[in-house]
Amino acid sequence: MDLAIKTALGSLGISLLVLATKMAAYVLTGSVALFSDAIETIINVAAAVAALLALWYSARPADANHPYGHGKAEYFSAVLEGGLVLATAVLIAEEAWRAWEHPRMPDLPLLGIGLNAAGGAINLVWSLVLRRIGRARRSPALLAGSRHVMTDVWTSVGVIAGVSLVPVTGWARLDPLVAALVAVNIVWTGYKVLRESVGGLMDEITDPEAVSNVRAIISRHAIGAIEAHDVRTRMAGRMIFVEFHLVVPARMTVEAAHEICDQVEQGIRTEYGEAVINIHVEPEGKAKHQGVLVLS
Hints:
The chain has helices spanning 3-29, 32-58, 73-101, 109-137, 140-169, 174-201, 208-221, 254-272, and strands spanning 227-236, 239-248, 275-283, 292-293. The protein is of the alpha+beta class and 296 residues long.
């Protein structure tokens, strides 16, 4: 089984475990702030299922209908997750408003805080794991999941701080106020997830460092050529697409030019793994003198 799919299965299991602890905290305390944290974790479960399906589908090989593969399916998962995050914020805001109008002191706050803190600690560890694997696999679905789970961690920190102060201050409305602040933070996170995911679907350059890296790889491996220009790259999940014009001496044979192309392609695939590379070879008269200079 692919590592990304195993990780998505792990996310589902972790989300269910954390949901159980946070729902228990809410049931014991009746705190609307703890309820808001539990609601966000319910969305984590739904997002984990969506990510699992997207990763399974994106791993399918290219076919006649999808000659460039199915990698962009991960972006749809990330878009869905961003939408779910925003929906969570609306639910929490509604609950916070009702609690503001009818405030009550939470029961057994220490026990609820302890359970919520345990769920937050689990999420913190798992978010770091997701981020490491997501970066290594260049997976939009796993990276979106990591950001969402980390938002849940910060939510838990804020909720714990707020609920802890309720019995100290005796101000019952502090509980829904904390929940409202959680909703605002979730809106910001949802916006960022949606923004990056839509950018991926639109082939927006989301990683300038990767573009510079590809240009450096071309410069190192295109020995014998003169320059490369009109270099373009895009990402679709784990797949990188690269295309450029390679200028070679006019008298160079087709075989020699092909060998240079092979060297460049091997360098890109060594660095990025799955890649679709298109190189248009041109004679030196086509040089623009503004592209990638080849290291001699």
